[in-house]
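Could someone model calcium ion with this protein?
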Amino acid sequence: MCHIRSHPCEPDAVRLLVVEDDPTIAAPLREGLVREGFEVELVATGAGALAAGPVDLVLLDLGLPDLEGRVVCQELRARTSVPIIVVTARADELDRVVLLELGADDYVVKPFGFRELVARIRAVLRRTSGQRTTPTDLVEVGDLTVDRRSRAVRWRGAQVAVTPKEYDLLAYLAADPGAVKGREQLMHDVWDENWWGSTKTLDVHVASLRKKLHPDLIETVRSVGYRLVPLDGGPA
Ligand code: CA
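Reply:
Sure, complex below.
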């Protein structure tokens, strides 16, 4: 395995880990990415990928000589929230859902255009930049767990099915537990900034979440709005 670090002293450069065993792809790819201003560390094996230091994004070829690429992806995801773009030559075998379940943020299929790849890298970095400071994408408030990666909601460990809008509302309230959110603010931030209709739909969603999770989880603050109350261990 080879660790090649380009421009190691350059401050603020986005660091990419490129995991690619085919040197005819890896070398020009690295050159191109360095020209784009990225700092590139290149490894040719799954073991090398798992041994590499912290980076800002991983570009992971699935067809590696030592380890199954999917295993590498899963391992990386178990250890870190680093964004991962999977590279695969097997378009026909590609199962987007499986890749996303393994923790990949996006994928490209070989042969890919270099410009497209760079655009994907920048898009994933933009999308994930707000999350990079948190070690995981799990928001835990008392007995409530909101998984922002899979949009799953758990109450006392058991998964609860919620609608997309119920999820949006709950995730919004859970991001700032205890804080009172005004009705207009909620309609603006969770629904649509151009919303002009009744805020009745907000009450309907709150009522449904209370029913599915816990009657006291979302508290009504009279003539203002709602707030999420951290509940812990009480009777359901
Ligand atoms: Ca390969």
